[in-house]
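Final report, closing paragraph on structural work. Over the funding period we assembled a curated collection of sequence-structure pairs, and we close with a single example.
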Amino acid sequence: MKELAFRSDRVLQLLVAWLVIAWILAAIEPLYPRDWLLENLLVFFFCGLLAATYRRFRFSNLSYGLFTLFITLHLVGSHYTYAETPVGFWIQDWFGFERNHYDRIVHFSFGLLLAWPMREILLRKAGVTRAWSYFLAINGILAFSGIYEVIEGIAAVVVEPELGMAFLGTQGDIWDAQKDAALAFIGAVIAMLVSRWSERPVPEPG
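Its predicted structure, as stored:
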């Protein structure tokens, strides 16, 4: 199937427009401007990487939609900081949690939303078989999640303490990094189970 160029792909154009609008809104009076800038370094790098590799490897529109949803969640967290996002406070009040769990939602979404694009790379570029692609996509998500937690910790040490704690968003939990990685792993497992189920042949009626 012939791939659409960006100028002809209305779906991808709408996704990019959505991200630009979401980024602009998140950039208006963020709660902690310096933390917002630090959080958005990841967005700049990731979006730049997708744009730079677009001609060499074009993801499916489903994958771009999943990327867009995840980045949107991240932009909301960067505007308020993950520990002070209103949605997280609403959930905290509804369920009587002791902390704001918005960061947990985003880490879970990392696995749930990005395992599919990772599997797409494995299938189309790495030549991995379908049977192995599920396992390797889950492990890839877990690896990237662990690497991010290490980078996040280093960034928190390098910057001033108050900004570092806002960036980390641990909210006093010494096992925060491990729990975040575990949630990403669970999200990836669920995504691959759904993917495996959706690819099962439909039985003939009879």
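Residues 6-195 form one domain. The chain is about 75% helix and 0% strand. We thank the funder for supporting this effort.
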